Structures are given as C-alpha cells and as structure tokens.
Amino acid sequence: MEIYVLLKRTFDTEEAIQLENGKIEEDGAEFIINPYDEYAVEEAIRVRDAQGGVVTVLTVGPEDADKELRTALAMGADKAVRISIEDDVEEADHFSVSEVLAGYLKEQDVDLIIAGNVAVDGGSGQVAPRVAQLLDIPYVTTITKLEIDGTDAVVTRDSEGDTEVIKTSLPLLVTAQQGLNEPRYPSLPGIMKAKKKPLEELDLSDLDLDEDELAPRLETVERFLPPNKAAGKVLEGEIATQVEELAALLRNEAKVV
Amino acid sequence: MSKALVLAESRDGNLRNVSFEAIAAAKLVADEVVVALIGENVAKDAAQLATRGANQVLVVEDARLLHYTPDGYGQVFMQLIDRVSPDVLVFGHTSLGKDLSPKIAAKLEAGLISDVTSIEGSGADALFIRPIYSGKAFEKVKVTEGKTLFTVRPNNIEPLAEGSSDGSIEAVTVELKDLRTIVSEVVRKATGGVDLSEAKIIVAGGRGVKSADGFAPLQELADLLGGAVGASRGACDADYCDYALQIGQTGKVVTPDLYIACGISGAIQHLAGMSNAKVIVAINKDPEANIFSVADYGIVGDLFDVVPLLTAEFKKMLVH
C-alpha cells in the first residue's frame, strides 16, 4: 500500500507570538511537527505495519523543514519528500500549496493520504480537503478511527462531539483528530536509521507546474496581537460572600448571565 | 449588484445561530444574499431564514442529504453556484463548513478565508480578520483574485433580527450522483445539547476536577445557564473527559460571552483557545495560577466548594 502523509512544520505550541515589522518573529523559536500531523504519521506507520507498504512523508517548505521530516522518518516513515516553492511563489496561500501537493501526488500511485485536520499556526484546515478534491478522491476529516479491509475502509469521525461511522473506499484521504492514536517518540535506533532514509528535495521544475498557475488568491495585509487584558478583579472574603459578589458582578456589571 | 450564497445549517432539527451570523456577514460584503438550505425535511426552516436577512432561500431536500457528506453537499452546492452565480460564498466555521468549504474553494480555484471573526470595509474592498496561532495573533486578509469565500466563527458577528428581510422561498431539485462516503451510523454525544463552539457560556474543568465524576458540578452549572462544558488538555489527557471537550491550541478555540475556568492552571496552549472570551472567570486553589492573568474575575478557592455555591446563587437569581 502506498501511504502518503501531508506534514507541516509549525511553531511549538509553547511559543508566545511576537511581531517584527508586521511578520511573525521566528528567530529563536522552537519548531515541531504540527501536533495533528504527528497523529497522521503514527497512523500511517500503523497501517503500513498491518497491511504492508511504504509510508512517504510529504511537505511543502524550505530546507528548515528537513528537521521535522527526519523526525517523522525516525518515528518509522520510510521516505520523505520536500517540495521547495519559496523561490517561485511568494506568500503562497492554501490554494498554492494544495495545487503543488496535488501536482506531485497526481504522478504517484496513491492508496491512502493522511494529514492532520488542522495546523496549529494558520488554523484553516483547508489543504487536505483541497488536495482530495484536486485528486478527485473521497475524504473524511477529523477521524478518530481507521479500519481498512482490502480497498474498503470504515472510518469513525468526530463531528463536534458526535461520532459518525463512515463507509468508503480507497484511494482515500483522511485527516487526523485527537484521540486517533498515541504518537510514538522516535527511538534512538530509529533516529540513527532516519539519517540514511531517502529525503528527496523537489521544486516546481520537477513537477511540471507553472508558477503563474500557483499565484495566491489571498493576501495578508496586516498581522497584529490581541490587546493585553487589564488585570482582573480577584475577590476577597468568605467563599460564600465571594460567590454572591461574583454572581452579582456577572449579572449586573458584565451582564453575561 | 454583487450576490452572496450562504450555506445554512441545522443541528438537532433547529437552525444554528451561526447561520444567521453568516447571513449578516454576507450582507456586509454583498448586496443580495441567497441562502441554501440543504437536507431532509428542512423546508420548515426556510421562512425563518427569509426574515433574517436572506433575499432568497433555496431549499434542496433529498433523503440522501439527511447526513452531511462532502460528495452529497458538494454536488448540491456546485449546482446552486451555477444557478446563482454568486461573487461571495459564506459558510459557518463548523464541522460541516470546515469540511465542505475547502472542497468548493478547490473546485472554484479560489481562495478561502477560514474562521473570520470580523469584517472591515465592504464589497470587493472588504478586509477579513481572523485568528492565527489559535488566537495568539490575528491577521487581516483580502481577496486578490477570484471569488470571495469565507467561513465565520460562531459568536462573533452580530446576526440580523427577525423582520430584517422578506425573502422569497423556492424549492430546487438537483441531481445527485453516487456518493463515495456513506454515513452508516451517528452516535450523538450527550453534552447537554449545547455545542461547545457555539455556546454563549462555557464552564471548563482542568486537572483540578480530579476525576470524570468531578465534572458533575460543572455540568450542573452549565445546564442551569444553558451553556456547555469544556476541558483543558490536562483533564482530557488524564481521561476525566473526552477529547471532544478539549479547548486550546490543540482542541477547540472558543469565544463565548462567559468562560468559567475551574481548576485550570492556564497553560499558554489553553489560553490561546479561550482568552478571547468576552468575560473570563477563574476559580482555582492556587493564587499564582496563570489563569488569573487573563481572568476578569477570580476566586481563589476549591472548585468543589465554589461551583456548587455559584450554581445555588444563580438558581436564586434566575428565579427572581
């Protein structure tokens, strides 16, 4: 089975965000595999171990992302592919990135694509469903369970707390929700092996894609930080009095109850 | 005359508030608003939409549309787009909207602005504001090419009152071909019926609730106020509750009117998911807990003392 994981390198969720000339300050920040993509890597490895096949992790991004690809290889993925577009497409948006990913995947034999359901930086969750549409394959987002039998798949998905069981078939794209699995940590032998696993770097000229067709549809004109909240009121006195005061404040001052 | 097509949504047989908010958002950027109402036995809701800002409501009913599937709704929506020729397409930033809108955007080779919390300006010059890094920062986005597609975050855009429009209602027949994903079973989770992302009031628990049973007093308070229960990652990881309740940078990002954090320390990832709530109350034994730094009101105390007292106090208050 040919399994592809769509992976994004993101800011560590521990990081506070600072702006420098209207851009997110990246100097000194820690980067990680997008947490939802870790579930995707783990699930891909499990499916491969059960069904046989090859897991390829795929990302669009600059050379820095090799670190996160190596981490996925150390977890147990077999191959990595990084498509570098930053020299050709300025300020790529979801449209650009999904066209690039689909452009690559169209040329491969694909049985299963797994991605995170959302990236914790941009927070749009668009790229994976877009890729499925461009490849004209079915997709199921925010999944918590994946069962594959031949080319049939039964997928359990979380829909705002409801659980849906969905029958579908391969080739298929799914996106991982929390609860799908518990991602493993790379083992030391895994890390050693990862250094020798293939990591291919491609650019648009390798993909038969024209930069003019990838021009972003959106432009970010400004980034800003939310206003700092003024320090709140910590109540004092007997607990019962505090509770009375709080209820009255919520009712009369904040007017939210 | 610019036109918008808005996808309305129901949950448990009722129109979702976010649909009215989506209509109001569409009105900000387009002259005329057409609303699509899709499902099985949904026509009863058309009249309400027609008074809340819609100039026209298109109703598509089919037994195969009882459950949302990307193929089913995608086919219907693309046919409605052909019919209406909208310049603007608006969805709720809901499970359904998040799933369907990227498919439509890909088909239209268009951009899509997800999770919009406010709009500046109007028409083709509109700027869309949305959170990034789960609300640690925001960005202002404009459309540079193609149609304008966006999803609106629940609870952020003021909906239009009843009587704002007197729209027409039309039943539309569409063609449905094979659906490649079939929903074979839906298990509803009993979380008091109020969805976390749309709840006006959220009572959330952290490690301090100590057990699954520890959520009971929180649920009682939430039920009384017509709100929903949420949780921090700590509580979910400790198996006190389901991951569906998790609020934070992983998990849901919420903007209720009132957020009551009980026994939550306030890790940066959790704050990202809730610090844009309008009013925040923190209840925590530890006076140094980080959650107090974003709270409007704080009580230093044991949640198991404070929460039941608060419930009793609101009960008294709501009777009068």
Automatic annotation (TrEMBL), chain B:
Organism expressing this protein natively: Exiguobacterium oxidotolerans
Domain of life, source organism: Bacteria
Boundaries of every Electron transfer flavoprotein alpha/beta-subunit N-terminal domain copy: 4-186
Family: Belongs to the ETF alpha-subunit/FixB family.
Pfam families, per the entry: ETF, ETF_alpha
Coiled coil: none
Keywords linked to the UniProt accession: Electron transport, FAD, Flavoprotein, Transport
GO molecular function: electron transfer activity; flavin adenine dinucleotide binding
Cofactor remark from the record: Binds 1 FAD per dimer.
SUPFAM superfamilies named in the record: Adenine nucleotide alpha hydrolases-like, DHS-like NAD/FAD-binding domain
Protein name from the UniProt record: Electron transfer flavoprotein (Alpha subunit)
Binding site for FAD: 207, 232-233, 246-250, 263-270, 284
CDD domains, sorted: ETF_alpha
GO biological process assignments: fatty acid beta-oxidation using acyl-CoA dehydrogenase
Cofactor (UniProt): FAD
